[in-house]
Please model this.
Amino acid sequence: MGKLLENLKNYFENTPKDIIDRELNALDYLNEVGPDVLEYAEQIREYLCSNIQIERFNIPKYNGEHYVDSSNSNYYLAA
Model:
């Protein structure tokens, strides 16, 4: 792991910013491959709730900004 870290440090210290920006822009399309982690978690939660019917566990719903817990329990904060 130390060698990888050293190589990364060396790369960012010795590579001009315009080259780093050009390489970053060339890889930007990889950010559009699929859902982000919150979208994925919401899809899994919806799948589980609709197919396995685990609503009885009071899994809070993500409304795009935060989780809404109708049972007023704080168990979901542990995750």
Observations:
- The radius of gyration is 21 Å.
- Residues 37-51 form the longest helix (15 residues).
- The longest strand covers residues 61-62.
- The beta strands are 61-62, 67-68.
